[in-house]
Amino acid sequence: MIDKILAITLISLLVMSASTANADMFKTLKLKQEGRPSVCIFEPSTETTDNWELFKVATLMGIYDWEIKMTQAFPDGDWKIDVHHTIPWEEHEHKTASDYKQCNIMINFEKLNNIENSNAIGTTSIQFQNSNHKYMFINVYMEHPTISKNVKIVIGGDSTGTFTVKTKNIVLSPIQVRNVVLHEMGHALGLEHYNLTNPLKQDEHGTDRSSMYYSINLSDTTQSLEVKRPEILMLKEIYGADGWLGSSPAWIIKSCTVINTILYGCK
Questions:
Q1: What are the chain's domains?
Q2: Which of 33, 153, 161, 263 is paired with 80 by a 20 to 30 Å CA distance?
């Protein structure tokens, strides 16, 4: 798909880094899908991946986990997510998002993230400025460059030391693509990032508390995100217990403050 997106807001899933957060806070994007989530998946080029069928299954798993978990939590609600047939690369290569007005969530795949000063492996841009077609555009970046440094120090003799820097691309595995899609779908449904309130315990990761934590660890190839209680309750506050098309609450909760935690258990 031709990239002609001017993002109002860009939310990124980052590679894990150190954090000094001292308070948990979970916010909404202060917006919601006006109808049933309708997802278009755009097949990547063969240059981006030569194993699309496997990644396609991973993408669907990331999408449907939201439907499954919301239905389990609120079985009387209608939480069905419509997913259209995958759009082949040859069909969308020269088209733009405006050609797919049947979709309010679009998932695209790129080989590398070319956004300046960004190490995100997934981004979601909010495109709500056109009242005729409001949508969220998700980009998944299939490769992530890493830098390794090698220092050689020579003591004595006539030799000199060396310092070399090598760049190697980490290629996302199917389970990592599933993780990225699951996280970015949370943004597309109206959720912001989950920020820690209490320090992590030993061997605990931010994603153990919420799939909407802002970073994941690419070195852990077995890590599998799940939709958890905080995001389930937050979506219930956004859309109501009766599902995407039901009657919404009188007001949309914006964040998990102390008061909202007491009233709604949203933490």
A1: 10-142+172-264 (3.40.390.10)
A2: 263
